[in-house]
């Protein structure tokens, strides 16, 4: 109890230490956090992946799939069939095949009322077939899904995956060992069809009301335990890439990822994560750099919170899912045919079939610097907390200083301004809903409304007189620190990127009497406004893509792309329930504004100092 | 001359007291509008479904269900759905159907009532506190600037009112229709009655609280101490105890339908004491008893409950016998930390009483740390809950970690306040200066 009852605990040496060295402590804490996190990519600091769930028994049985010729035949037929349809699924053919194979085959209709333009409506149709398990009573299910892409699609074709899916169905329907139903699902309109099907399967609506009308399913199976999404671009596969990043930064259980990898190795299929495989280096620095680049590649897709495949939508329903994307070009010179791919699918499904409980053993929070190395939450969270702690240390030091100065502070005024800033954020957040009330295409209206509100809000601090900026700074620091910890809990990549960018700037911000420094910190702070960051990222991206164009053209492109990015994130939040837009507008922007207020604080340089 | 001056002083005081009342009314109006605005928005059901707000004991859903079963002549205590007493159900029903006719209105009015009662009670308490320290010559030189100033009562009472009305914890509790908000109304009535020296009101309110949520039963001790110490009346103290017991018996007689049906005892007190419902909440019981081997359960139930009720009661009562109000607040704090089904309203209520100790703040050491832990744990709790229950990716350990931090923050806070109080008492006698023979001395608890 010494900690609590020591009479000199609080205002003693520790406080003095904090007051004297808080600047250095903050920098130290930030640096330790960043270095810690970066060094986690080195294999010395992370660990090998391993199987945690014993029930999976991966690769224990001999694969018996032999229907690769059939798959090729399906592929040819399907290619001819798709020519007859413009943009919709060749559902008559698919239904006929499913029925022929002996599955319960159904179609599923869904409607999307565009969230940005009330007069626009899209229709879609999914097809799915259910293989009823001979050894259980439809209480559990596995999903093998493929996104259908019409010939006119901008994405590479996925027809080979439908072919192998049908061939696998033909194979599986004869086997006696299935204890879980297998749902073969072919979705329309990329992620939209998948979202609609999942919502209909679970009878819920994830996005805003009346945006995605998910329709009804005529046939159902039990609780889905795992899902594999196939995107094969060719019948000859050079390598399989495993994609795991899901909606809002959710990741599938690491066991499923390991399972897919293990089976690939067993069947002799070359597989990668982020298109990178294992590499060996003598030099520890090159080794670290290789892994770190991989880690960054994962983090950039992870941080957006936008799924990079249809698997990402399963995760929010507690279904572990991943995408196997097959590319034709080879990394090692050899290619495999549909036989091996079919056996990979067989292996994964037979292993998942063994599951006694849902996936729960292994990690849900991890980062992968390579396909066989992982960084667990226990390793990366301290780094994230160290960075956030820098803010809290600064807030603490400011607080003690304020206590020492012993001046009366109008806390209420500060709290009112603080809350007001969050109301601005809430208003920005509800702009799409407000814009929807006016019945026309609102996508550009939202964007310009947003920009104008944000620019107007920059003027708020000008009306502040007699304001205790110190207290505001403490509040803002605490809020930012808390937000960063919460963000890192949800989506470490996003949390980390935010921390690394915003913490140094937030540490710089202080109330000074120096005019130059004051302007400098205002400038720096504007640089890390969420929209400025978005714009910078988009500009760099378009400059890399179109580097032969002039600067003016690139900038123009960047502005259009930024507008699109904002509109997409609004649409994503309304259709899928992606919370990126909500978090940015409800927390990050208000917090940014609070700091912005602080930059207007000035210590009045005492006049007549020598009187 | 002196007479004139004193009347002027009184006038000034009257004016300032009037302006405080106006301020209070303004605050109440704003608070009511704020509550109503959020209650009618889509966030109401989200908040109401959170475990931090609605525990098995304070969930309005369960009350409506129980009330419906009662109206169909089905005994709701046959199942393990309802954990409120028959009197409470009857009370809610009458209030809802004959007085307010609107759930939102009912919760808002009770919440505002709590605020007003606390405001009035604290106004009197702080005034007396200030009067007690009026004769400044009695106290050492260096504590003078810490002594309560002229407008102490006005300031503190407004702070308490603000602290209650705009405290996010009580706000969330009220919006989420946590019945703990209504229990808190009676708790504030108890404090009100205690400070105004009304035996009947205080003992009645306490009896209501004790029958509904059991733990406040221990507050009878500070109540009787208060009457003995502040009103110098042993009869009042004895009367309070007698009244309290009588009310308890009367309420129990009503609850048991005049001795016919004691099935509620198992579901109300049984539930509070033996913790059969292990739905997670922000307290410390659920995790511990989910992990517990069954044959140790009884032992730990006893130790946990003794910890909540009588472990601190006797020592604190002895130490703080001269300041029974501090004792009451400390016990309320300990109850809200260690009770079996705590919710946010509990913390909101006790936190709003803190401004009473504004004179102790300079002596507090962990204020900032406690604030930071509370902020972080309160914002992490819903995040981790979501990850655990909805995303199925985190697990119970994450959430328990947060509740542990939350409890630690509160323990730090109450220890800090009590320690500052003992320091305060010491410095009133001996001064702030702790120099012994010219060297810095150290205060230590022995």
Automatic annotation (TrEMBL), chain A:
Organism: Ceutorhynchus assimilis
GO biological process, one term: attachment of GPI anchor to protein
Swiss-Prot/TrEMBL keywords: Membrane, Transmembrane, Transmembrane helix
Protein name: Glycosylphosphatidylinositol anchor attachment 1 protein
GO annotations of cellular component type: GPI-anchor transamidase complex
Residue spans crossing the bilayer: 377-397, 409-430, 442-464, 471-488, 494-511, 523-546, 579-601
This protein's record includes keyword Transmembrane helix: yes
TrEMBL record, chain B:
Subcellular location as annotated: Endoplasmic reticulum membrane
One family name in Pfam for this protein: PIG-U
Domain of life: Eukaryota
Annotated protein name in UniProt: Phosphatidylinositol glycan anchor biosynthesis class U protein
Membrane spanning stretches: 103-122, 156-175, 182-199, 205-228, 237-255, 299-318, 330-355, 367-390, 396-419
Family: Belongs to the PIGU family.
Keyword Transmembrane among record annotations: yes
Cellular-component GO terms for this entry: GPI-anchor transamidase complex
UniProt keyword annotation of Hydrolase present: no
InterPro entries (alphabetical): PIG-U
Assigned keywords, A-Z: Endoplasmic reticulum, GPI-anchor biosynthesis, Membrane, Transmembrane, Transmembrane helix
Any one biological process term the GO annotation gives: attachment of GPI anchor to protein
Annotated pathway: Glycolipid biosynthesis; glycosylphosphatidylinositol-anchor biosynthesis
Membrane topology: Multi-pass membrane protein
């Amino acid at each position: 109890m010494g900690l609590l009852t020591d009479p000199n605990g609080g205002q003693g040496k520790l406080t003095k230490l904090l007051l004297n060295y808080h600047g250095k402590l903050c920098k130290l804490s930030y640096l330790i956090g960043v270095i810690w996190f970066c060094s986690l990519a080195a294999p010395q600091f992370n660990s090998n992946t391993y199987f945690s769930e014993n029930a999976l028994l991966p690769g224990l049985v001999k694969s018996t799939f032999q229907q690769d010729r059939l798959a090729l035949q399906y592929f040819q037929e399907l290619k001819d069939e798709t020519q007859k349809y413009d943009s919709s699924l060749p559902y008559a053919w698919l239904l006929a095949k499913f029925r022929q194979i002996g599955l319960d085959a159904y179609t599923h209709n869904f409607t999307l009322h565009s969230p940005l333009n009330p007069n626009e409506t899209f229709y879609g149709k999914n097809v799915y077939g259910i293989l009823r398990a001979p050894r259980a009573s439809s209480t559990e299910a596995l999903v093998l899904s493929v996104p259908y892409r019409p010939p006119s699609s901008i994405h590479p074709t996925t027809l080979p995956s439908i072919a192998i899916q049908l061939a696998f169905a033909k194979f599986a329907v004869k086997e006696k060992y299935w204890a879980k139903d297998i749902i073969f699902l072919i979705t329309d309109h990329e992620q939209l069809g998948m979202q609609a099907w999942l919502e209909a399967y679970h009878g819920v609506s994830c996005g805003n009301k009346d945006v995605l009308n998910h329709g009804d399913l005529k046939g159902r199976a039990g609780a889905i335990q795992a899902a594999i999404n196939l995107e094969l671009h060719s019948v000859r596969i050079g390598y399989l890439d495993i994609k795991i990043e899901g909606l809002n930064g959710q990741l599938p259980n690491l066991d499923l990822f390991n399972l897919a990898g293990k089976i690939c190795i067993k069947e002799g299929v070359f597989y990668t994560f982020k298109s990178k495989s294992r590499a060996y280096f003598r030099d520890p620095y090159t080794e670290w750099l290789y892994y770190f680049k991989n880690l960054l590649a994962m983090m950039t897709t992870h941080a957006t919170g936008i799924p990079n495949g249809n698997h990402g939508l399963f995760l929010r329903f507690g279904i572990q899912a991943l995408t196997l994307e097959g590319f034709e070009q080879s990394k090692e010179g050899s290619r495999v045919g549909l036989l091996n791919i079919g056996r990979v699918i067989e292996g994964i499904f037979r292993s998942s079939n063994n599951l006694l409980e849902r996936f729960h053993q292994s990690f849900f929070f991890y980062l992968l610097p390579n396909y066989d190395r992982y960084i667990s939450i226990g390793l990366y969270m301290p780094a994230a907390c160290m960075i956030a702690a820098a803010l809290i240390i600064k807030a603490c030091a400011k607080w003690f200083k304020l206590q020492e100065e012993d001046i009366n502070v109008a806390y209420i005024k500060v709290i009112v301004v603080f809350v007001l800033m969050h109301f601005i954020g809430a208003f920005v957040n509800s702009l799409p809903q407000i814009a929807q009330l006016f019945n026309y295409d609102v996508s550009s209206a939202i964007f310009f409304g947003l920009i104008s509100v944000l620019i107007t809000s920059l003027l708020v601090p000008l009306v502040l007189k007699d304001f205790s900026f110190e207290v505001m700074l403490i509040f803002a620091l605490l809020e930012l620190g808390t937000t960063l910890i919460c963000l890192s809990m949800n989506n470490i990549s996003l949390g980390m990127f935010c921390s690394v960018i915003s913490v140094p700037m937030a540490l710089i911000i202080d109330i000074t009497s120096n005019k130059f420094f004051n302007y400098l910190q205002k400038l720096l702070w504007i640089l890390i406004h969420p929209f400025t960051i978005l714009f910078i990222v988009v500009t760099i991206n378009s400059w890399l893509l179109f580097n032969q164009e002039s600067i003016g053209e690139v900038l123009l492109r960047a502005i259009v792309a930024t507008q699109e990015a904002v509109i997409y994130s609004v649409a994503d939040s309304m259709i899928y329930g992606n919370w990126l837009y909500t978090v940015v507008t409800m927390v990050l922007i208000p917090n940014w504004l609070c700091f912005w207020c602080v930059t207007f604080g000035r210590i009045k340089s005492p006049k007549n100092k020598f009187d | 001359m002196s007479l004139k001056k004193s009347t002027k002083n009184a006038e000034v005081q009257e004016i300032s007291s009037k302006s405080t009342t106006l301020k209070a009314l303004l605050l109440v109006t704003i608070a009511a509008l704020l509550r109503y605005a959020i209650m009618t928005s889509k966030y109401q059901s989200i908040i109401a479904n959170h475990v931090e707000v609605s525990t098995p004991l304070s969930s309005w859903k369960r009350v409506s269900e129980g009330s419906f079963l009662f109206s169909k002549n089905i005994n709701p205590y046959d199942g393990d759905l309802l954990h409120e007493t028959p009197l409470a159900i009857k009370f809610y029903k009458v209030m809802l159907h004959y007085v307010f006719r609107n759930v939102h209105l009912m919760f808002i009015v009770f919440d505002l009532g709590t605020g007003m009662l606390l405001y009035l009670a604290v106004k009197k308490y702080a005034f007396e506190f200030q009067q007690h320290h009026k004769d400044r010559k009695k106290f050492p030189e260096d504590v003078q600037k810490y002594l309560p100033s002229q407008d102490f009562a006005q300031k503190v009472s407004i702070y308490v009112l603000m602290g209650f009305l705009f405290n996010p914890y009580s706000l969330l509790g009220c919006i989420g229709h946590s019945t703990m908000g209504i229990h808190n109304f009676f708790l504030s009535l108890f404090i009100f009655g205690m400070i105004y020296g009304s035996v009947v009101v205080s003992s009645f309110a306490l009896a209501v609280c004790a029958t509904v949520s059991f733990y406040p039963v221990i507050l009878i001790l500070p109540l009787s101490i208060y009457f003995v110490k502040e009103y110098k009346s042993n009869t009042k103290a004895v009367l309070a105890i007698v009244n309290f017991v009588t009310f308890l018996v009367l309420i129990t007689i009503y609850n048991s339908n005049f001795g016919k049906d004691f099935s509620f005892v198992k579901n109300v007190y049984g539930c509070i004491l033996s913790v059969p419902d292990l739905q997670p909440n922000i307290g410390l019981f659920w995790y511990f008893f989910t992990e517990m081997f069954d044959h140790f359960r009884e032992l730990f139930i006893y130790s946990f409950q003794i910890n909540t009720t009588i472990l601190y009661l006797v020592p604190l009562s002895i130490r703080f016998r001269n300041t029974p109000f501090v004792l009451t607040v400390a016990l309320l704090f300990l109850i809200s930390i260690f009770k079996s089904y705590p919710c946010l309203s509990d913390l909101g209520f006790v936190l709003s009483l803190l401004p009473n100790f504004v004179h102790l703040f300079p002596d507090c050491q962990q204020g900032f740390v406690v604030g930071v832990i509370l902020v972080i744990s309160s914002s992490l709790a819903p995040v981790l809950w979501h990850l655990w229950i909805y995303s199925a990716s985190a697990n119970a350990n994450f959430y328990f970690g947060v509740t542990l931090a939350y409890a630690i923050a509160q323990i730090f806070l109450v220890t800090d306040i009590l320690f500052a109080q003992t320091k305060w008492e010491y410095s009133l006698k001996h001064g702030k200066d702790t120099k012994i023979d010219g060297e810095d001395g150290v205060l230590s608890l022995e």
